[in-house]
Every structure is written in C-alpha cells, then in structure tokens.
Amino acid sequence: MQESAILGYLPILIFFALAVAIGGGMVVVSTFLGRKNPNPEKISTYECGMVPFKDARQRFDVRFYLVAMLFILFDIEVVFLYPWAVLFTRFDPVIFGFVEMLLFIFVLLFGYIYVLRKGALDWS
Is pLDDT of 51 > 70? Predict the structure, then answer.
C-alpha cells in the first residue's frame, strides 16, 4: 500500500523535475550562447523614457495602498458572483439562492457605502 501511494505521485515528481531541468537548461544555454553587447543606453535605468530625478526609495501616500486593498477586496467579492450564477438553477428552492445572493450584495454595498462615507476614496 505504501509503495503504490508513492508511485501515484511519480508522474508529478517527473513533471517537476523536467520543469526545473528545462528552466535551468534555458538559463544556462542563454548564458553561454546569448549575445553580450552592453552599451550605456541598454544598461541605464528605464522609467517610461524619463531620466530618473529622485531616489526610488521615497515614501508613498497611504491612500495608494488603501485604494489598492479596497480594489482587491471588492474585486474578490465580485468573483464570488460567477460560481453563484453558474449554479443558480441548481439550488433546491431557487428563491433561497436568490435571497442568499441579495444578502451578499447587501453586505458588499454596505461596505462600499461605509468606505465612501469614511472618505477613503477622496483624493483631495
């Protein structure tokens, strides 16, 4: 029993070994066969075609992070709508699935209104 369980994972182990070997092989081959033609233009810092004028380690306003976290939060919550839409007709009483999603959207809307009232999305 123990050997058959280990043999079941053998294809996955072979797959990972091949993936590492192919990836590592490509890096090694490109190191030896790749063109080495550095010039000042290629090795310069690239920032949208503009010459950098400040240090890259500057402080960002916390609102950038707050908006990013809120976007991820609401985006993930909206992703839950897709499985519900696919399985909507499979709910035993269809009204149960509908009411359940109405409650979910109400909570989502309540959170969005709370964020707006707190001024988390104001940039002034």
Answer: no
- Residues 108, 77: contact at Cβ < 8 Å? yes
For residue 55, being part of any structural domain is answered with no
User: pLDDT at position 85, please?
Assistant: 86
59: left (phi over 0), alpha (psi -120 to 50) or beta: beta
52 pLDDT tier (thresholds 50, 70, 90):
low
Query: Has residue 78 been placed in a domain?
Result: yes
**Domain-located, residue 90:** yes
Complete DSSP assignment for 34-63: S-----TTTTS--BTTBPP-S-SSPPPPHH
**Residue 89 included in any domain:** yes
Terminal CA-CA length for the chain: 67
Instruction: Identify residue 80 by its one-letter amino acid code.
Output: F
Instruction: Compute the distance between CA of residue 43 and CA of residue 62 in angstroms, rounded to an integer.
Output: 32
